[in-house]
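Batch 3, record 17
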Amino acid sequence: MSGFFDLPSDLQHSYAGLIGLHLREALLPVLAGLLVSLPIAQLCVRFRWIYPPVLGITTVLYAIPSLAFFVVLIDYFGQSETTVMIPLALYSLVVLVPAIVDGVRSVPPETLAAAQAMGFGAVRRYFQVQLPIAVPAIIAGLRVATVSSISLVSVGMLIGNQGALGNMLYDAQTYHRPALAVNSVLTIAVLGILADAALVLVRLLLTPWMPRKGATR
Amino acid sequence: MIRIDSVTKRYPDGTVAVDRLSLDIPDRAITVLVGPSGCGKTTTLRMINRMVEPSEGSILLDGRDIRQQPVNTLRRSMGYVIQNAGLFQHRTILDNIATVPRLLGWTKQRARARAAELMERVGLDSALAKRYPYQLSGGQQQRVGVARALAADPPVLLMDEPFSAVDPVVRKGLQDELLRIQDELGKTIVFVTHDIDEAIKLGTKVAVLRTGGRLAQFAPPAELLSAPADPFVEDFLGADRGIRRLSFFPSTGLELQTGPVVPIDADAGKLAARAATAPYLLVTDLDGRPLGWSEPDRLTAGAIDRERLLDHGRPFVPGTDSLRTALDGAVLSPTGWAVAVDGEGRAVGVVSQQVIGEAIRAAHGEVAEHADAKAGR
Ligand SMILES: Nc1ncnc2c1ncn2[C@@H]1O[C@H](COP(=O)(O)OP(=O)(O)OP(=O)(O)O)[C@@H](O)[C@H]1O
Ligand SMILES: [Mg+2]
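Prediction for the assembled complex:
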């Protein structure tokens, strides 16, 4: 009988190796999603009328099953990590774009007026005032996007061995080793919780200016 | 000097916020824009630093059209203070104040040193430097707003209802502080408020705007009170403008009576002699500070009971305080007499409502004569 952490050789990775792979396949798309969302969100703030159609598009993208994406993407990228990560990046937009838009819009009008009156140019105002103040909202969005991305990576197993920890689910069936499935699910859950906690920590470090609960004056 | 030259602002939706406004804003003085909500005060102020562009007319700064220099250069040469301070919530107090110097390219160190200096100038404890805005009271935040506007030592300060979000006591403190700072720095200040009392207290000149953005009157506060241009201004000044106007008349000329003032250790002879001078006597302590009023026949030499004296109300300082303060003292006094004290609070005399009334009539007469002379009558 194999141990809980002994993986079948067809997975081509050790347990730790799968975790590394899983995190990479989950986090890179969120990072890419963030980089794409920032300019899109800024456009939505600047030109209000494009926000509703943009929201509509991100929702439609989110509604497309990953399998459908895979069918198209396999022609270009083969059965690769890229094929798994592109849909994940697109899915993250549905949370990240509204989170950033809300964050940037939450900057009080008098703060913006003050920045303008003090002679901030548009670029400086964005990077030095709007973006820092939007950080809590952006991180709130990142938390949702990250956790869901970590759980969604598993579908990569549908295109052969690209689901990282998710591949263990497949093997659990093939080799009749239910423990592998339990291991997979538990590990993914723990990764999700840890990633979430890490983001909370990042937010605390980035926003010493936010009122803390129970803080005294 | 800032010259606003027949400026009109029509917003895209057709609202005329400011209508052919012309104002010459004097240097090194506080010019107040006052008027009901929506009369175009903020719009006018924001046209001076080009946050709003006029639809017609022009604004000149020292004879040059403000559009001749880059907009951010112009803005960095004008401090701007708004209601609720508009502080950067993500920056410490020190860094908030250092903002404009940093934009002007000062080193971080120099900008922070300057910011620390300004915190002291506006009366902020240096212990607050490392705090964030949420950790400050409204009044403190407002002070930070003023310090931030002053940081790069701009010649012009634009203030949009800076003190309207704080309670009356704090507001009075901030107003006094502003007057003190202005005495030291001599900035050209344009101050927007909808509070006519604030306008009268702070303004060297006051521009009253009416709804629709038209100028109703532009005059020093005393003139506004004595000669409102039309019923709108008169109405805006409120029912007690006569009383308020007294703030501008000095109490110097009031004829004080010293007879009714007696020390607490006065002997019977003295009490009897003084009793003849007035219906009430003002008893002072041994240093001459007023204790209270009493009818002469209730006083027993050597055994004057402080507890049984009538409250003497708030005394005024002749020369420093206005006729308004003197009249207030008399009205509040149970005897109808106001107590005059020197800088140390020692009674220098008393004055009746009647005498104050005569002084008021005389002062009005002088103003009227002066006005007639000016009008060439
Ligand atoms: N961006 C804008 N677009 C259209 N109309 C505007 C805009 N800003 C102000 N207005 C209108 O212009 C008029 C003057 O506004 P402004 O803000 O200058 O008034 P205010 O005197 O500062 O009033 P308050 O005392 O309430 O602050 C108002 O009728 C207002 O509704
Ligand atoms: Mg206003």
